[in-house]
């Protein structure tokens, strides 16, 4: 079968479309015939040289983090799925494998995909959707909260805005002039054009912030929060996340602790609770997202769909950073 393989750490040429063996479902696993797969920044960041330290992988391996497809086979012990079921999943973080014609995934990471949308739209939901859902849960959003979501037109941002509104929050976000109409249609009440203004010069007194970009967007978020507010970032690493989520040893955790000095200082000075979050694959949470989609309360936003044979071009487009919603490949 065809697979998009990460052969080594390095530049874009480290990933190649080539023939690979077709996997077989083991105990507790589901074999999925892939219909579409979503592309994410993490998919190309993993191949960068720093990825070897932060998230070491057993190379070569088929890349890809999320997919939608049809169950082709089940291993012993699988009870929730049968051949022919339409499913979607955020695959195992260490095994990957979504960028191929077939993929094997643990039953616990799989859910039935929303029946109201295409495979292409469902394929872009798992990673961004789980990240948004789990991040907002960590923030403890309550009805009436004023919440800031950075990068509202991105894959995570488009879903985070909708979920925060569902939780009863009033949402502010950043977007370009091209993205403003989209984020307002998803429920954002206040939109700051990041090309023209700094959001920290416009916003103030917010109860919570959900950072999807990192860098100065993260540090500037402290300036718009009131004392006692909460900030969660899915684009940074704090020492707790380094140790518990990434499994880093004492040396690398210490490096992260030093690198986080400015953020810790801001957190203490502003009286703001801060933590980073690494999304956890979960079939149960995907079921929650599927229910929201089918009830019309959550919309999957797809920017472009490329044929699988053009996956290198799809990544080049993604890395430009201008996608509104998700970039997907169709198998």
Could you give the distance between the termini?
A: 11 Å
Helical stretch count?
A: 12
The structure class reads alpha/beta
Mean pLDDT: 92
Radius of gyration: 19 Å
Enumerate the spans where pLDDT stays under 50 for 5 or more consecutive residues: none
Structure, described:
By secondary structure, this protein is α/β, with parallel strands linked by helices. The protein has twelve helices and 16 strands. It has helices at 41-45, 51-54, 119-123, 126-139, 155-166, 177-185, 216-221, 239-244, 250-259, 261-270, 283-294, 311-319; strands at 2-6, 15-19, 29-39, 61-62, 66-74, 86-90, 102-106, 110-112, 146-149, 170-175, 190-193, 206-211, 225-233, 273-276, 302-307, 326-330. Strands 3, 5, 6, 7, 8, 15 and 16 form a seven-stranded mixed sheet that branches. Strands 11-10-9-12-13-14 form a six-stranded parallel sheet, with helices on both faces. A three-stranded antiparallel sheet has the order 2-1-4, with no helix packed on it. It is globular, with a radius of gyration of 19 Å.
